[in-house]
Amino acid sequence: MRLTGPHIGLLATAAIIALLPLTFPNSYYYDVAVSALFNAVLCVGLNLLIGYAGQISLGHAGFFALGAYVSGILTTRWNLPPLLALVVGAVLVGTLAFVLARPILRLKGHYLAMATLGIGIIIFIVLNTEAWLTGGPDGLTVNYLSVAGWTLKGDRNWYWLAGILLLTTVWLSLNLIDSAVGRALRAVHGSEVGAAVVGVDTGRYKVLVFVISAVFASVVGSLFAHRNGLITPGIGSFFHSVELVAMVVLGGMASTFGAVVGAVILSVLPHLLTSFEDYEAIILGMIMMSTMIFMPKGIVPTVLRLLRQRGGAS
Amino acid sequence: MSLLRVDGLSKAFGGINAVADLSFTINPGTIHSIIGPNGAGKTTLFNLITGVYHPSGGRIRFQDADVAGLPPYELARLGMSRTFQNLQIFFNMTAVENVMVGAHLHLNPRVLPSLLHLPVVKRRDRECRAKARELMEFVGCGAYLEADSASMPYGALKRLEIARALASRPKLLLLDEPAAGLNATESREIDEVIKRIAGQGVTVVLVEHDMKMVMGISDHILALDYGRKLAEGTPAEVRQNPDVISAYLGAGSA
């Protein structure tokens, strides 16, 4: 089989995930790595919507939080097995996204941003105020992830689970993009009317990608709940939604590996900058600003283009 | 029997009647041109036929179905496709991928097999890519098979749009100003492409300002002015029509 760019990228990602723990001196590093991997999975899904299909969502943290809370509530209050709760959460969030998508995705640009922002805020408010169900602002304690009597504990094990999950997600995303479904999604971004006149039901594809990306968020939310042990409404806040979009844009829109790189950078950077104490947020902001000014297409597409130019020149 | 039958078609934008009470038929296997001065309603008519606009009144029959008000993707399924005066290329994709989107209906894509890249998906994709390359050669942009569409010259993009439309295997192909912005040589080449398309049994309708091209290749011409039918007939008949002459050259010139 001929190795193409995406295959090489996938192998490189696998190698990095496999070898990185050798450099981890303590469990704190695992902890940061797991959250980076979770964000990467979520961003690969969000990138299908934002980068490839050209739609925006400022409410995806809401879907993430819903997945987390469905898992939390079903496992702690109704004693459902965590895996079943995760699936129920994904189905519920997928259904909700499907119902909302038709009316919302008729909107474009700023209007779509406003509508998705509204969804996120509504979810956040419900999680905050319906304390009888969600525990309100105090949050909800969630049990360990256990499957068939075996319990997943320790940062190291979570790291491997998250790593495998990311590789699977990247593989699925690469497959989808390089198929007729993926081409239809990209065509919706390129020209909706151009796609429609050759038979692409653009409305259907926008709904499809919205649902897929919401389900990704929900699954990651469920896993996050079990790992963290405590979830609060803050995980569904507007700021978290913006953070997710920033990861996709920083890494590079319409690039699966870009989403991964963006998620990893923005997850790890705050930990690297803690020594700057009060100036941490300012430095983070300046790094983001200069990246967008000097690499408006995002990190991965820019680097790839430079490499290609150098390869062509030599 | 007619392939397309338009009956009393109207479209109003506010108080302006862009197309007013227009009726005509298009027979299969022929090349039709729609001409008229700027603002005569030619592009509006195209947008009505292809479902981009909703008609304010009237009927459109395509083959045996009443299709007025159907969305463009449904019309594509019935065998109608088009190109655009202002290009609607997918600039975020390569040239050959643009044409592959044109074959969307014939791939009948499903999400789960696509996510898993099942062998059947890969095989059909390979066939689709090969067919797309053939179509690019056919319309004369074979030099850009692996090109990024964003880096292609204007003339090649016009051909690429035709290839994309052909990939949907239309019975009726509508070309909105295929020669606009092209030089004389390029125009003649497009001319040849259109004749070859018609030679394969596809009915072609075009809006065009290049009169040399229109008079040379059309079997039938419909002249519009202010959204109404001005004249209709063979190129020779339309050329002689005093109404057409005065609409183009100003009243009194005839």
Average pLDDT of chain A, rounded to a whole number, is 90
Indicate the low-confidence ranges of chain A by residue numbers. none
User: For the largest beta sheet of chain A, what order do the strands appear in spatially?
Assistant: 1-4
Unreliable spans of chain B: none
Q: Into how many domains do the coordinates of chain A divide?
A: 1
Q: What Rg of chain B is obtained from the alpha carbons, in whole angstroms?
A: 19 Å
Number of strands of chain B: 10
- Label the CATH architecture of chain A: Orthogonal Bundle
Indicate the CATH class of chain A.
Answer: Mainly Alpha
Largest interface: A-B, 29 and 41 residues
What share of the residues of chain B does DSSP label as strand, in percent? 15-25%
Q: What fold name goes in the CATH topology slot of chain A?
A: ABC transporter involved in vitamin B12 uptake, BtuC
Give helix and strand order of chain B, one letter per element, not per position: EEEHEEHEHHHHHEHEHEEHH
Fold and architecture overview:
Chain A is mainly alpha-helical and 314 residues long. Chain A has one domain: ABC transporter involved in vitamin B12 uptake, BtuC (Orthogonal Bundle). Chain A is 74% helix and 3% strand. The longest helix of chain A has 27 residues, at 202-228. Chain B is of the alpha/beta class and 254 residues long. Helix content of chain B is 41%, strand content 23%. Chain B has 11 helices and 10 strands. Chain B has helices spanning 42-49, 72-78, 95-102, 104-107, 111-116, 119-139, 154-167, 184-199, 211-217, 235-240, 242-249; strands spanning 4-13, 16-26, 31-35, 57-62, 65-66, 80-82, 172-176, 203-207, 220-225, 228-233. In chain B, strands 6-7-8-3-9-10 form a 6-stranded mixed β-sheet, sandwiched between helices. In chain B, helix 3 (95-102) crosses helix 6, helix 3 packs parallel to helix 7 and helix 6 crosses helix 7. The longest helix of chain B has 21 residues, at 119-139. Chain B is globular. The relative contact order of chain B is 0.18. The mean pLDDT of chain B is 91. Classes of the chains: A mainly alpha (314), B alpha/beta (254). The interface between A and B is medium-sized, with 29 and 41 residues.
